[in-house]
Amino acid sequence: MQLYNDFFGRFGGRYVAEVLRKPLDELEQSFIAAMSNEGFLSELEYLQKTYIGRPTPLMFAENASNILGGSKIYIKMEGLANTGAHKINNALGQALLAKKMGKSRIIAETGAGQHGVATASVCARLGLDCTVYMGEVDMARQRPNVYLMEMFGAQVVPVSSGSRTLKDAVNEALRDWASSWDTTHYLIGSALGPSPFPDMVREFQSVIGKELVKQIEENVKEDVEALVACVGGGSNSIGFFAPFIEQERPALVGVEAGGRGLGNGEHAARMTGCGVEGIVQGYKSMFLLDSDGQVLPTHSISAGLDYPGIGPQLAHLGETGRVIFTRATDKEALEALRFFARHEGVIFALESAHAGAAAIKLAKEGSPDKAIIVNMSGRGDKDIFITAKIIDGNRWRDFLLSEAGDA
């Protein structure tokens, strides 16, 4: 895979207002130079080890495998990275690059909050000012992450326009960047947006897949038949898949949010029959759009998958057949979360629980001499205000009322 591609087949590119051409050109040149600079790469590797806590483990899910009776399941424990998700890999890489470029301020947007937490954390570590845009709906359902961002010193700006979710936060961040790029870097968290962001995010997240190559050689006895990852914008999946893309196998499986059903506004599945080609927020890819080309509302129990677009490289890989896309519903994700919690002692984030649900289905269909590796891109601490209300409603409500009474 080339370091910088710009287009992936017919997807990708840079469809932005003239005011953003110069900062994107500057970013592209700085990114390409940094990735061949031994000093930058050494500092990044040092921080990956000492600050993020890499490498993250690859765990054999022995109990789950025995219960399912088919292919062995392994879990890449990306949720054990500092701040609880893969998001910090890219946040650290971009923030370090921005600092080398002389920027003093970082802006970001976030849906599930994990990207915002990761960005706020690295800004605190590197001494950069941080502003995070977040839809009001997402702020309400991810309150713990808002608290953490503010603890790291970030200003969290609520976005009240549109559906008050991630796509609206992206629009606000783009407006900010257009007027502040001389001092500010826009730290996009997923492998989408105008180039060079899709290439840059893939490269900084590819540390997941590069570690996995070594861990398979050292620890996996079975033949690896599939890698499974959830796909919102696609940052964890493209990093997980990166070293394997130009091979014929294993199968690469992307799992989208099936939500509550097939109707408009009930899911966020772009690649499983619902998306159309379009240009939104500076890049060409597959989006959920109406007949007038307007972005449709989406739904997912996981805020991180609740987005109408997908990274252009993943759209291309889906179109060419290298990545197989499927979907998991809200209910299936919750069932997978409970299954791995009960039998393996790990709690998936709701986003990666979608991948867990698909891995369970695939494992049942396979044989014990095969292996499936699922990326637990984040851990589920952040989702407790969603999952506890559904799984343990009355006792959770009583607890919250008690805590509020003590406040």
Question: What does this molecule look like?
Answer:
Helix content is 45%, strand content 18%. The strands form four sheets. It has a six-stranded mixed β-sheet, sandwiched between helices. Strands 7-6-5-8 form a four-stranded parallel β-sheet, with helices on both faces. A two-stranded antiparallel ribbon has the order 1-2. It has helices spanning 21-34, 38-52, 62-68, 87-100, 114-126, 136-141, 143-151, 166-180, 197-205, 207-219, 235-241, 312-320, 330-344, 350-365, 384-391, 393-406, and strands at residues 7-8, 11-12, 58-60, 72-76, 105-110, 129-135, 155-159, 184-186, 223-230, 251-259, 276-280, 283-287, 323-329, 370-375. With 407 residues, it is an alpha/beta fold. The chain contains 16 helices and 14 strands. α2 (38-52) crosses α4 (87-100), α4 (87-100) runs parallel beside α5 (114-126) and α9 crosses α11.
Summarize this structure briefly.
InterPro entries: Trp_synth_b_CS, Trp_synth_beta, Trp_synth_beta/beta-like, TrpB-like_PALP, TrpB-like_PALP_sf. The chain has 407 residues and is α/β, with parallel strands linked by helices.
- Following the backbone from N to C, one meets helices and strands in this order, namely EEHHEHEHEHEHHEHEHHEHEEEHEHHEHH
Task: Give a short account of the largest sheet.
Answer: 6 strands, mixed
Helix content: 40-55%
Task: Kindly name the structural category.
Answer: alpha/beta
Family: Belongs to the TrpB family.
Subunit structure: Tetramer of two alpha and two beta chains.
Pathway: Amino-acid biosynthesis; L-tryptophan biosynthesis; L-tryptophan from chorismate: step 5/5
Enzyme class: lyase
